[in-house]
Each structure stands twice: as structure tokens, then as C-alpha cells.
Model the fold of this input.
Amino acid sequence: MQCRNEEFMPITDFLVRNAQLYGNEVCMVEINPAEQKSRTWREYELIESDHNDRYRREMTWEDFDRKSNRFANLLLSRGIKKGDKVAVLLMNCLEWLPIYFGVLKTGALAVPMNYRYTADEIKYCLELADCNTLIFGPEFTGRVEDIVDRIPKVGTLFYVGEDCPSFADSYERYSAYCTSKNPGIALTDDDDAAIYFSSGTTGFPKAILHAHRALVAACEVEQAHHGQGREDVFLCIPPLYHTGAKMHWFGSLLSASKAVLLRGVKPEWILEAVSGEKATIVWLLVPWVQDILDAIDRGELKLENYDLSQWRLMHIGAQPVPPSLIKRWKEKFPTHQYDTNYGLSESIGPGCVHLGVENIHKVGAIGVPGYHWECDIVNEKRESVPQGEVGELAVKGPGVMKCYYKDPKATEAVLGNGWLYTGDMAMQDEDGFIYLVDRKKDVIIMGGENIYPVQIEDFLRAHRAVKDVAVIGIPDERLGEVTLAVIEIKEGMTCTEEEINNFCLDLPRYKRPRNIVFATVPRNPTGKIEKPKLRQIYSGQESLVAAQIK
Done:
């Protein structure tokens, strides 16, 4: 069900098509396990769907299209026009995607926002993207109230949920009075569609501008890689504000298949959702995979209690994947296909590089160029390096951003001749598979020697007691930088610095961590290690509870 490139079909038309062909079929389910109370999954299977159920809600393709049209017409009635910017600040919920598509149908730009943003960060991003409208949920009322008098350009605020605050209008109330007729705004492939924000790991977030052609490309890439068909069910757990989760769901949109939004990441909730909703495709982040496997090992999860027979694919993205983790996964789930996806918000999320389900023998690599993508590995002069040498990964394809919005200097630093220079250091093996070595800015230079933290992290994760690990560089008067490993231990287990030191004897001497700290490894909502936070915590310390490897 792929669209033809020779005749552009905007992504909103896929929704219209699905509503026309499969209007009465359920397309989206929201599950909130925190509202489950005493209900069991066996009981749930016997209960007729209740659209007002706080625990489980569902929506048909016809509902989806109608709701998006109503919101589009509500925006148009408030003077929103093509090219305007509408910010979306919501937790994952059934309203999220109809609101997103409603914005697109007006010709305005959707501007999804990170739910972890503070009030000041929300204000910063609203101003950076020139937003004149904000739609937000109850979790953000306090933060929005803190800035509402300081965002004069945001003239329209809509609230999704009960108990609408006085400074906003109710989304449900006002959209209910709007027509469900498609507004019919013409869209082209080069029209601006959305602004996403970078993760801000190097400072304040940048505003990433994408055209409509990039959204359509994401649909095609995702379905080409994972083969979604009409009978598939995609379990979506990561936040929809991020390109990754949404663009993986685009494969469900293209194939007109069902998706499930799970609001929670506990291992038992994930397996219950897979079992109860008959999910066939699940996208997980490394910490969640680790938690599931650890819960199984501790006997807290018993696989025989769940119906997982239909689950065909587990895939991971957003961060490097330790090969030892996938080896453990395949021991527990030997019939699963596995894939890993590499992407950036600047390249419309997942899939500019992917492993491919047929290449599990290459676990550890991020893969080969994705569907309709090209890749190169270059030196500082942006010249291709010989195979086997480390350089910066560059990607080229239909999902590359148009620019960093209102930031020509930052744009020029990463775009050139159609190539996006990712800032990730990588190498290519003799078979053409690309291995991610590390972020360019995370490389540690110790006494003139380049050290790539990911290599040390992958090694340490193989230790029986290590749940997670992050390696950073901290200042050293003699060597410039030395390595520090922040190690998070598995629940119920213990480990000493001496054990880690002995374990690291199998590493080359220069790669052995000079400092070891046992602490929680912080990750952002998309699973990426927050290394700037760790550098801030540890780089300024004069003394560390650390082991010096002599």
C-alpha cells in the first residue's frame, strides 16, 4: 500500500483513504494500566469496549478522520492559516494523532513538544518556532499557567481534558460544534509540515523544519523495512512528540492497521498489552528490554502466563544496542525477528540506516542504508574515508530536514549538497555494514588517544550485575581527559569496584575506565543517555568514589 513517488499524495490523504475504505475498523487503542484497578486481562477480554473507560479507549478510522477535520475547522475558525505554527504539548493519548492531523489539514505546521520541558523551556520553544497556538493537556496546566502572561504571541490556547483552566478554551467543547467536513486545503510535497525539536543534548533545543515530502517518505521507509500488513498490530510506547514513535506508527497508517498506545513501561504492562491486544510489532528502548529480561530472570514475569504467539518483531532504535542484550533476548524469544533502526529528528526519525530482520548475524551494527537512503563516512574535510576507518556518518535521502528554523549558521554546519552530517562517528566493515562508534562530541581524547565510550559501554554491559552504564570524559591535568564509568547495578545484585576492574582486564589498557561510580544512569524519554547531565555532575568534582586502574 505504498504511494507512488511520481504523484505526490500528502500524508493526510492516507487518513482520508483509510476512513473511506475501513471506516468502522478500530485503528487506535489507548491503554492506561494505572487505571486498571482490579480488572484482569482475562476479564478485559470479555468486556465490550467502552469509549468512556479510563483504562482502555479505542477509535475507528472514521472517528480519527472526523476528529481531525473538526479540529482543523476549529483552528481555521480562529484564524489559523497555512504556514502558522501550532504547538502540541500532550502525553500519549487517543487525542494526540487526530490533533496532529487536524493541524496538518489546515496547512499549518504541527510543533510537538517534549513533555519533560520546564515552563521556561516551553516558553523558549514556543518563541523559537513562532507558535501562535498551543494545545495542552492536564499534566501541563501549572507550567502553562506560569508562562501564559509571558507568551503574548500565543493568542490561542486549547486544553484537552476535564476541568479546563480559565486561561484556555476546551478542545472537546469547541471542536464538537465544528463541521467534520474536510477543509480541503491544498498541500504540496515542498510545503512546510512540522517543526520538531532536537533533544538538546548539546544545549538549548534546535527547531528542525520538515516538509510534507519527509512525512510521506517516513511512511514508505517504515513499511518497506518492517512489512506492516492489514493484520499487524503495532504496540507504541515511546512519546509521540518524538519523531521515532510517530514515524514508526506511520507504517500502520500506510498499511491501515491497528496500533496500541500503552501509557506505561512496566514489564508486566508491556507483556499484558502484547497478549491482550494481540500485538505483532513492538518497538522498545534498551532500558525496557533490559527490564523485561531482568524481570523474567527474577521470576517476576512468567512467559507462560501470556499469549505471545502472534508477536513477530521486536525492534529497537534511538540509541546503540549492546549485542549481549539481543543475545539474551533471543534466548527468551527465539522466534522473534529483530531489527534496529538508526535515525535522527533531522532525518525524520527512524530508518535512514537499519539492520534488517534478515541480518541478525550482524547484531552490533546499525545496519545498511535504509529504503531510498544513501550513507557515507567522511573525515573533517567531508571526504570519504577508506572502509574500516572511523569517520563522521553522513546520510542523504527524502527525509532530510529543510533546515534548522531561523538558524542558518547551525544549518550550514550540518547540511551540504543534500547530505546531513550527523555528528555520529561510525565505521563500515568489509560487508558494507555500518557500526556506530560514538557521538562526535562524546569522543574522549586521553593523552592524544581517541576513546569511543560506546565500545567500553558495550563491554561493561556484558557483566552479569550491570544493568546500565555510561562512560564520559572528565578533566585531567596531565592527560586532558580520563574516562569515568557510571554503572547502574541490577536490582537485587551487588558489585564492587574490584570486580569491575578485574572484568576490564580483557580490555586494552587505554580503554579501561580510570574512574568508576555506582549510580543511576539518566536517560531521556527516547532512551538516550543524558551525558551532559553526567558531565555536569562529575566533571566538577575534585574527588570521586572511584577506582584508579594502574
